[in-house]
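Budget justification aside, the reviewers requested a transparent look at the raw inputs and outputs of the sequence design task funded under Objective 1. We therefore reproduce one unedited record. The lines immediately below are the structure tokens for a 136-residue chain.
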């Protein structure tokens, strides 16, 4: 099966996703300030096949939260995506939780009404979620 996935094209990947009941595709856009290029040339074909496309990227410590937000926004804008998910894991846990606020504030400066979601939020302990206050 792994070999099959490595030989996929945008068209047959779309067929597999559609057959499995998916309506959105979420390619990785960046890891911190490093840009990911894998499968981004498929975005147009996924859209033509009727999929929504939401990008995601990893918020790490490779740059300032503002710099990472600039990379995330540039990729979303370039690809004309339907939204963005920030993957906030290890570097956003505990003492690193501060990274989320400036990242989101910068994203909101750049894209005031775009759908933006957060995934991960470090290792959330009982009750499995953390309350986040993004109010100004």
């Amino acid at each position: 099966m792994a070999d099959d996935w490595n030989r996929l094209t945008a068209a047959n990947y779309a067929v597999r996703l559609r057959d499995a009941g998916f309506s959105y595709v979420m390619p990785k856009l960046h890891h911190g300030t490093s840009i990911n290029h894998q499968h981004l040339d498929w975005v147009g074909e996924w859209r033509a096949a009727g999929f929504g496309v939401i990008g995601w990227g990893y918020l790490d410590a490779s740059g300032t939260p503002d710099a990472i937000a600039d990379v995330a926004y540039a990729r979303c804008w370039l690809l004309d995506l339907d939204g963005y998910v920030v993957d906030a894991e290890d570097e956003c846990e505990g003492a690193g939780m501060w990274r989320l606020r400036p990242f989101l504030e910068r994203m909101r400066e750049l894209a005031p009404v775009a759908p933006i979601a957060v995934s991960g939020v470090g290792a959330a302990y009982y009750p499995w979620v953390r309350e986040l206050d993004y109010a100004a």
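The mean pLDDT is 84. The radius of gyration is 16 Å. Computational costs for records of this kind are itemized in the attached budget.
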